[in-house]
Amino acid sequence: MDGTVLVADDDRTIRTVLTQALTRAGCKVHATSSLTTLMRWVGEGKGDVVISDVMMPDGNGLEMLPKIQADRPGLPVIVISAQNTIMTAIKAEEAEAYDYLPKPFDLPELMKRTAKALSAKRVAPAAAKGEVRERPEELPLIGRSEVMQTLYRLIARVMNTDLPLLITGESGTGKSLIAQAIHDFSDRRTLPFVHADAASLIELEGPARLLAQAKGGTLVIDELADLPEEAQARLVRMMDSPGDHAPRFIASSQKDLAAAMEAGALRQDLYYRICGTALHVPALRERVEDIPLLSEHFLIRAENDGAPHRVLSEGAREVLRHFGWPGNVRQLENAVRRLALTARGEEITQADAAAVLGPQSGPEPAVAGLSSEKLSEAVGRHLQRYFDLHGDMLPPPGLYMRLLREVETPLIEIALTATGGNQAKCAELLGINRNTLRKKITDLDIEVTRRRKLM
């Protein structure tokens, strides 16, 4: 790489790591913990790329992007943030950040994106499109897992495009919620949001009525592959001739549409019209690290609806994490709401959770014989089951790092418990550096204090 990179982050370790890595790659680096200093450097014409955190001691990095673009049109800004929510991704996209990475970020990936930014010839941002309409401050999408971060970035990128959008995922994953959120946060948010069903499409005047109702807003077609042939044909004609106030078409499906097309259940012309831009919503079993966060959210929602105040015990969290959740997030919400009403005390116990979830919440029969089973065999058996759950489809990308994280978290937690929370002993037991252990405890959000109390 060749160029000058401006780094702004209030974490000294991150500044040091990025400075060393970028310098080794051939870049000149200016690093600071102050947005004021960063903006002075930008105003002086320094830097070919900016890497900036969001929450800084003297301001918000995202709020500085418009001024950076005004002072230095085309200067690529890569946003990094520990506030890794869908709103951060959307705001970074709206502020025309060159890229966005959630913390903890993968250093090689950040280096690759920095190299791309240095070599890119950025065009000046488009002129403002007029007054921005008001919208809610938060999106009802929850999750800090890697697969959800990827989904957030994709949503931010496609939100204001006019291309048809396909949302896929199992029942209960939140496809309808995402369709509604994309509309509510897009430039079409003051226009109608209309659902089309088979009956309205088959009616003689149905398509014209749907287009009139949508009036340039968003038209959603649920479970595309389940539409009868006649409805599919009418939908194709609607998409080809939507009139003067064309809506944005969003379709959803639980099924593999490519397989449905090959089986003759879905028209080929409809398939190619609707799936130009696609979002896949991961199943809950593919992001188990989000289950505690989702559960806390649903408990708060239940309390707001009149349920007693409840908190989850560590045992209850483990039961929820190890359940299969065939009904995904919708099933989790229903279970947590039930727990909020039926738990015997303020703290929801492991027994409370097991009683609500039933037999599947207990250990699998095959696990009982692990004393004679090699660890590699047990891991292989669970991995095969994970692949089998996806049928003919492959799991989402990023499987290697996701699985490592799933193994790493319980390993460190169990080791900490075994050593009474003594991090020096735990690091020695694991055979890793104590500073490495501390970083992993922080990155994996492992509750050391609670584990000490349990001893």
Describe this structure in words.
With about 450 residues, the protein is an alpha/beta fold. It has helices at about 10-25, 35-45, 60-70, 85-95, 105-120, 145-160, 175-185, 200, 205-215, 230-240, 255-260, 270-275, 290-305, 315-320, 330-340, 350-355, 375-390, 400-420, 425-430, 435-445, 450-455, and strands at about 5-10, 30, 50-55, 55, 60, 75-80, 100, 165-170, 195, 220, 250-255, 275-280, 310, 345-350. The strands form four sheets. The protein has a five-stranded parallel sheet, sandwiched between helices. A five-stranded parallel sheet has the order 9-10-11-8-12, with helices on both faces. A two-stranded antiparallel sheet has the order 4-5. Strand 4 (about 55) and strand 5 (about 60) form a beta hairpin. The longest helix has 20 residues, at about 400-420. It starts with a strand and ends with a helix.
Proportion of residues in extended strands:
5-15%
Summed up, the helix count is 21
Question: How far is the first residue's CA from the last residue's CA?
Answer: 51 Å
Q: Give the biggest beta sheet.
A: 5 strands, parallel
**How would you sum up the global shape?**
globular
What class do helices, strands and sheet pairing give?
Answer: alpha/beta
> What are the low-pLDDT stretches, counting only 5+ consecutive residues below 50?
121-139, 362-372, 449-455
Strand order of the largest sheet: 2-1-3-6-7
Tell me the radius of gyration: 25 Å
Q: Helicity level, as a percent range? A: 40-55%
DSSP summary, beta strand count: 14
Mean of all residue-level pLDDT scores: 82
